[in-house]
Structures are given as C-alpha cells and as structure tokens.
C-alpha cells in the first residue's frame, strides 16, 4: 500500500473506551467519520470487524461528540475480548454479510417444521456470534412454544453438540447426573459426585451457572473451590480423582447453550425444548454415557404436574436414545426447597454439613443425595439393582465421600469455607400457626432480589419446613445480602408478598 | 437535605457522551461508583432514571475507564431526548420496578389466549418504555405466529388506540386509504388524497415511514413537502384544504406501533396480526370512519395468494367492525412493482408526473390511483356506486387534483422538487429476450442496499416491464445511491442474484 494502513477508509485504529454492554458485541464510530459516510452506516447497522484473520459481527453505535476521532473505532468490552485486540490495533470494518439462517427462524415463527440442516445453520450462526440479541430473542421465543417436534429437538441438541468441543475419556461407563431445576437449594450434585467417585465410577461433572434461579451448581461450588478450569486442567483432575465439579463454559462444550442462556435469562424463559437440548447437549459433549436426571415435581417447581413430568421424561428418553445416551429419570418431591440455604454460599454450606456428618445437616438434602447417588451407582453398574442407595449411604457415613470431595477440591486448586452475606435481616412469624405452604418461585425471587447469584454470599436461609408449627415471633427465614439496596429491595418485596410462606392459625 | 443533592448516593450529575444506541434507552455509570455498589448493579441491570417528575427505564452499561466520574452518569442519545434533560442536570437512579405484563407475554408464548386486559397491560408497558429490545422481540415473535385469535387481534388494536392520542374532526365521513404493502413503488396515496379532497371529502392522511420496504408514503412525501407536523399544524392544514399527507409519528397516534416497528424492522417480521393492528389502530386513532384498503397480490408481494388475501380481508373486516370502521378492501395486481421508481425520491417523481399529466407518467400508477380514489369517493358517498373511477379520472385530468396537491404542500410548509441520487449505475440486458419475471422482494432489497429509505434520494428506476421485449445491452434499470459503498454493495448483490429480472430468450 502506498498510504499508511490507517489512512485506508475501512481501516481504523482502536481506542479502548471501556464500555461494558454485557454480551452484545458493539463497535463505536464517530458519526461524521469517513467510513460512516462511504458505507452509509448509522446506529444499529451490523458491521464485520476484522483483525488479522479473526472477525466478529458487531452492532454499530455512533458517537456524536469528540469521544473518538474520525479514523478511530472502539469496541464494547465483550467485543474487545472476543476479538483479542489491544489498544492501538488496526481493524478493518465492512458490511456484515446477510445472516441466511434467520430465514429459518422466520419459517419456524410462521409455523414450519425445520430440517436438521436448517437448525444446524441457525446454531452455527449463533456460535459464530452472528445473531444480535434481538435475533436471539426471536429464536428463543420461536422455540419456546409447544409446537417443536421431537425431531427438531434432536436436531437442535445434535447441532449444539457439533458446534463445540467433544470430550472422550477412553473408558466406559462415564456417569453423570443433572437436575432440571426449579427447586431452590437442590445442590445434590456436590454430594453425589464424591459419593459416586469414592465407589470407583468416573464422573466428570460440568455444571452451569444459574439461568433464572438464585444459584447453579457452578456458583455454589465456586464458593468452595475454583470451577473455571480449562480442558487440560479438568482432565488432570479427573485422571487424579476420577471426578470433578467444574464450570462447563470454559471448556467450550455446547457453546451455543451459553449464548442462548444469556438472552433466556433476562427473558425469564425456560422452555422444555431448550431445557432438553441444553442438558443433553452438555452431557453428550462432556462424553457421558449414562445419565441420571432428577425431576422435582410440585406446584411451584419448574415441572408442576405428573403429566408435565411424563412429557419431559418422554422427550429426554427420545432425544437421549437418538444420541446414544442411557437416561434414567428420578422424580422427586418439588413442593418445598431442599436444604435450608438458597443462594450459592448458603447452599454450599448445607453441602459441607452433609458431607461432614454435622448434626445440623439438612436431612432432606442428605436423603435425596443418597437416593440419586444410588441411582447413578446402579446405572454405572457399581451396585446391583435396588442396592445403590445402601452403598451410597455407606460411602457418605464412613467418610469416603468427604475425603473424596476434599481431594477433588484440592485437585481443582484449593478448598476454602464459603463466605456468607454480611448484611442480614431475620423474618419472623406474625403469629402462631402451621406452615401450610412454601412458594419456591417467590423464595427464589426473594433470594435473587437479595443479590444471588451475582453476589455469591447473598440469599436466604429457611428456618421452617412444611407442616411444622411455629410460635409468634419465631424466625421463619434470614435474608443475607452484600449491598444495602438489595437487602432493602428484598424486604420491600416480602412486605408486598407476605404469602411466600403461608401460615395457617392452628 | 443537609448534603448537596449530588452527594446523595442515588443522585448523579449527567454528562453527555453522545452515544447513539438507536432506540434502546441506555444509562452509563462508572463501574466502581458508589451507587453500583450500594444497589448491586452490573451491566444489563434495568434502572429507573428520574428527572423531576419524569422517569424512564434504561438498561445499564458500565464504563471501566475514566469516561465518567463516580458521581456522574450518562445516557444514550435516545434516552437524553425522551427524558428531556441537559448536560449537568441531576437524575435519581433506582431499581426499575418489575414489569408485570411480561408474564402475559410468557403466557402467550406457552400457548395461552390472552384477555383484553392482559393485552392492554402489555401495550401500556410498551408505550411507557418499560420493554427492553429483547422483551419487544419476544412479544413480536409471540404474536407473529398463526395462533393469535380474532379477539386477541381486536384487543391488541384497541389497546394500541387507547394508549395514544385520538383525533376527532367534528364531521363525517372522514375517509382514508391504506396499502398493506409489499409492492415497491405503490405510492397511490399521494395521488388519491388530492383527487378525493378536490371532490370535497375530508381525508386527513397520516402515513408511516418504511418498515421493511425501501420507501413509505411519509418518506416519499418528505422529498416534496414537510411531513413532520404536530397536531395543531395538521389540523390547520386539514381545516384549510380538507386533507393532508403527514407522518403519523409526530401526533402520537397509536405510539406503541412505532416502538414495535423499531424492533420488527431488524427482525424483518411482518405478521398479519401486527399488520391489521398497526393499520387499523392508526386509522381509528386518526379519526377515520371509512377506509379503503389496497391489498396487492402476487408471488413476490406481501400477500401471495387468494387464500392469504381472503384471510387478511376477513381479519380486517372483523376487527374493523369491532372498532366501528367501515372497511372496503380492493385487491390489486402484485406481480410487479408499480411505477418506475423504487425509493422515496424516485417514487415521488413518478407521483408528480401523474399529477402533472406528463407524457412519461407511469400508466399503471395512474390507473391504480384512479381506481382506488374511485373506491374512496364511493364509500365516502361523493360518487354513486360504480361511478367513482369516472369522477376520479375527471379530477385528475382537469388539473383539480394537481392544484389541490400543490395547495396541501404549501399548507404543510412548502413544496420542492425531489432530489435524486447523484451516483448511478445502469444495469443492461445481457442478451435479447422477453421479461418473464420481476422479483419485487429482491428489487426492494436491491433498493435498500443502494441506501433507501435512509438515503431519500437512493433506490432504482425500472426501465422494463413484464412481457416486454428487450434487446442486448438495453437498460433494464438504473441504480441510484448517495454513498459509493452502498452503490457497490447493490452491484455485488445483483451480480450474485442476477434473476431479479428474468429474461427468456425469445
């Protein structure tokens, strides 16, 4: 070139403004810059940003003051990281090519059944970052209704596996366990994994952070040990201890899932199609062969009736079979939260109490973990049919599970005690009575208002269970927060929605 | 207060950074600022921003450099305008209240039928700016499928009327005319209005800007006369001339429509539910009593079959009746664009040729305008059944319609000649043949790539119609652009999609 690189109209120099727009990739240009004129761009245009061999598609925001010079551009923080650039680097900007797979989304919206190839094209474009947040919302909404066929769900799950990494462990069986969610406090994985591993099975557990709940397994585990391991570190832990409990997002298993979840979260959607695709794609990509799936059922859980559980189980089996996975569903009680804590650190504390055999360990968490671990031992052929729970209890009571958990934490980078929220408020019974209802969904919302899961130490601890009698002024729950605004907001919500815990005068 | 206002943690001073994020309202805060800590906010939080009595809900973006001080905030350009604030003003920031109507959107997604009250709550929240772009995309997708009932469509239309201004003209009938779109160049309104007004009917026409097409009536009219009139100015024009052709967005008729359209546009959705609700809410809110609706039918128009036209007409009548509107549907030929120009200025030029009786006026545009004006004259009782077209032709040929158009333009603020794109490229036939197909959708895309409608002067002009014979090298169309990048992009698209105009060797 005879001109300096940055004098080409399409090549600009990057300046870091440090604007964090969360997930959406944004590129900033000055409104009067030559490239805006020559390309005819305005706010909301979709722009291809290229640095050496790497490209991203970003939404254009224009600046109308002197933040940027005419030959400068900036990126949102997420875009900065994805493109892997530094202050002063040169980038080339061109029109983003049309995203062909969006016509598939449109077809789905208008009632058509998509082919496996059509669905794969959508998921490829999602993983490549070509979908704006608006496009993702349309895709999620289109697939959230009831009119998605089993074949489409199989195709979606397969596409989510194929567009990410796939792990192979060189042995079988590889067992796994997953809860479909909707039940606060149900952190059985952190107990099931060490029980099962101490009995000799291989269980490389990858978990999600919370989608719409106050805590995911990865969030709770993170209050005790590092979870952000890359693939090499994860393999090392599994080679050493036969198990791990890590955040799946780092090892790029079914990466479309995390992109989809980032828009599902503000939308507060949890459709069964996405649920099945999300769960099974992660399990299959992680190399699992035998999976136990816990489905809690209750009026305020995610699955609210036997009929809904039947439909979900059928879809899990249909898709699992197509993927070559052995699935065993265990239906559990979803009428009240499990354990006492709701929120990452508070739930982790319950887990440690169970593993340590503490006197104040929550009985229900302990019993569920034993039952689920027993099911895993059975499908992994480490216990005979009907004998799994007994073997699991033994491993828990003799300390094998605790020692295995400590070893896993050490292998993942070190173990610490979970830190609980420093601001508290005790909620007391207004009068004597029997606890006749506990609204899991409202409790989850309360814990989220208190700051969970973003504030790992926040949430609440229940002091009363269904059917117990309480006296006037007796503590029903304690709220924990790290920020005064969040504690206040939770208290306001409770004042406006007192029926989170129903008391009937006895 | 004993402390200075800006020292309260929730009160910050505004600095204008001039960032244009198009429609979405965004508030910027520095990551370490005290309010982020006390409220527990991070990127994507929804924040209530209050200045004196006015509030908006905005999405938070955090800055991680020294763009803003710890007690400062900034807003996206749209938010700046909506809130009506200036540099240095103080604003109070608090958590945005939960948007209850989103549970209605969720219910719709999962297959429920909504009540009128539920739909009104959604539309109220949309008009109040409480829906993020992601929420809007979910709403649009949920209502775009085929599972929306007539009652829901009536409820949506009614809600869109009730959440905006409603005009009353103190006389009847008030006639109106609307084309459902999908046919480039179909600017009959700009001819129908002066014809009808010159015959004594009152026709206060409010029009939209383009949604997914290369030009809307408001865009084309804007190349000749001001369209951005407020209500008082609009009334003045109608009092003087019995008619107007203005942009409806300024007078706050069915304001939910414009918010919805801003997300429909990038999604490229045009569902019949939204279409009926959009058209009839604007007409009813404008005070119309008798409306002629033009439905072009053709394989590449918006309505592609008789069956689809039947369904749309039935919905228009059902909803129109519920609203007390008299609707008359006129089905027209949608197999090729109308007139020669596609793009605001080029279509306006065609309109002026027809009104002026120029020798090169497009015959098809002229004939359609006469037919539609005739239908309006008949439903408005200014002509007997069957005699409307004759009366309309008379008003056009004797110059009454032209004089009325000039008077309307003068009353709206002045008349000028439309300015055409300065960069051109002539597309020529590759060999002799007969024109056997003209793809309206691809032509529209081509005009948009050339810059329409954002560049009013951009678009294309057709030189060949269906069934005509052309020679090798004969001009088929001319592309017009204002930016070299846009002209190039249009040419690339044409090279990759030569079948925009199909030629069969004869």
Give short descriptive properties of this protein.
homodimer, 506 residues, alpha/beta, four-stranded antiparallel beta sheet, 41% helix
Give a written overview of the molecule.
The structure is a homodimer of 506-residue chains. With 506 residues, chain A is an alpha/beta fold. Helices cover 41% and strands 20% of the residues of chain A. Chain A has 18 helices and 19 strands. The first copy, chain A, has helices at residues 34-39, 77-83, 102-109, 116-127, 133-144, 150-162, 189-198, 217-222, 231-241, 255-267, 272-285, 306-323, 344-355, 363-379, 388-397, 400-412, 440-449, 484-496; strands at 11-14, 19-20, 26-30, 46-51, 54-63, 72-75, 90-95, 175-179, 203-207, 243-247, 290-297, 326-333, 341-342, 423-428, 433-438, 459-462, 469-470, 475-481, 501-504. In chain A, the strands form five sheets. Chain A has a six-stranded mixed beta barrel with strand order 1-6-3-5-4-7. In chain A, helix 12 (306-323) links the parallel strand 11 (290-297) and strand 12 (326-333). In chain A, helix 4 crosses helix 10 and helix 6 (150-162) packs parallel to helix 11 (272-285). The longest helix of chain A has 18 residues, at 306-323. The first copy, chain A, starts with 10 loop residues before the first strand and ends with a strand. The model of chain A is unreliable at 1-6 (pLDDT under 50). At the A-B interface, strand 2, helix 1, strand 5, helix 3 and helix 5 of A face strand 2, helix 1, strand 5, helix 3 and helix 5 of B. Strand 5 of chain A pairs antiparallel with strand 2 of chain B.
């Amino acid at each position: 070139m005879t001109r300096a690189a940055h004098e080409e109209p399409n090549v600009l120099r990057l300046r870091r403004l440090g604007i964090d727009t969360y997930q959406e990739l944004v590129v900033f240009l000055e409104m009067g810059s030559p490239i805006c004129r020559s390309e005819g761009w305005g706010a909301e245009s979709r722009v291809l940003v290229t640095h050496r061999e790497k490209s991203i598609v970003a939404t254009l925001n224009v600046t109308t003051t002197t933040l940027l010079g005419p030959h400068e551009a900036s990126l949102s923080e997420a875009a900065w990281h994805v493109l892997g650039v530094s202050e002063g680097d040169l980038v080339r900007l061109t029109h983003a090519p049309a995203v062909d797979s969006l016509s598939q989304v449109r077809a789905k919206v208008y009632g058509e059944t998509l082919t496996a190839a059509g669905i794969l094209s959508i998921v490829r474009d999602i993983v490549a970052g070509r979908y704006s947040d608006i496009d993702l919302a349309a895709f999620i909404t289109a697939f959230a209704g009831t009119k998605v066929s089993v074949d489409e769900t199989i195709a979606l799950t397969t596409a989510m596996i194929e567009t990410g990494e796939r792990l192979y462990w060189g042995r079988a069986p590889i067992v796994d366990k997953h809860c479909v969610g909707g039940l606060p406090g149900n952190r059985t994985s952190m107990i099931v994994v060490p029980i099962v591993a101490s009995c000799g099975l291989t269980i490389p557990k990858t978990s999600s952070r919370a989608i719409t709940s106050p805590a995911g397994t990865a969030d709770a585990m993170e209050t005790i040990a590092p979870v952000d391991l890359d693939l090499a570190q994860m393999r090392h832990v599994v080679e050493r201890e036969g198990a791990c409990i890590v955040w799946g997002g780092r090892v790029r298993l079914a990466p479309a899932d995390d992109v989809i979840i980032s828009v599902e979260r503000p939308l507060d959607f949890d459709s069964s199609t996405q649920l099945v695709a999300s769960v099974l794609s992660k399990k299959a990509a992680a190399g699992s062969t035998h999976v136990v799936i816990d489905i809690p059922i209750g009026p305020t859980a995610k699955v609210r009736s036997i009929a809904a559980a039947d439909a979900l189980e059928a879809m899990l089996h249909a898709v699992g079979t197509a993927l070559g996975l052995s699935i065993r569903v265990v239906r559990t009680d979803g009428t009240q939260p499990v354990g006492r804590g709701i929120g990452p650190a508070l739930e982790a504390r319950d887990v440690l109490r169970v593993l340590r055999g503490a006197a104040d360990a929550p009985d229900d968490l302990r019993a569920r973990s034993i039952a689920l671990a027993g099911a895993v031992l059975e499908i992994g052929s480490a216990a005979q049919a009907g004998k799994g729970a007994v073997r699991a209890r033994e491993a828990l009571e003799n300390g094998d599970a605790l020692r295995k958990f400590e070893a896993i934490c050490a292998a993942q980078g070190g173990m610490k005690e979970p830190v609980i929220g420093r601001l508290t408020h005790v909620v007391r019974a207004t009068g004597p009575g029997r606890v006749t209802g506990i609204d899991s969904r409202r409790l989850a919302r309360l814990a989220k208002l208190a700051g969970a899961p973003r504030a790992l130490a926040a949430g609440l601890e229940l002091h009363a269970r269904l059917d117990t009698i309480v006296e006037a002024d007796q503590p029903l729950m304690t709220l924990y927060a790290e920020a005064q605004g969040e504690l206040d907001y939770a208290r306001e919500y409770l004042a406006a929605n007192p029926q989170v815990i129903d008391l009937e005068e006895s």
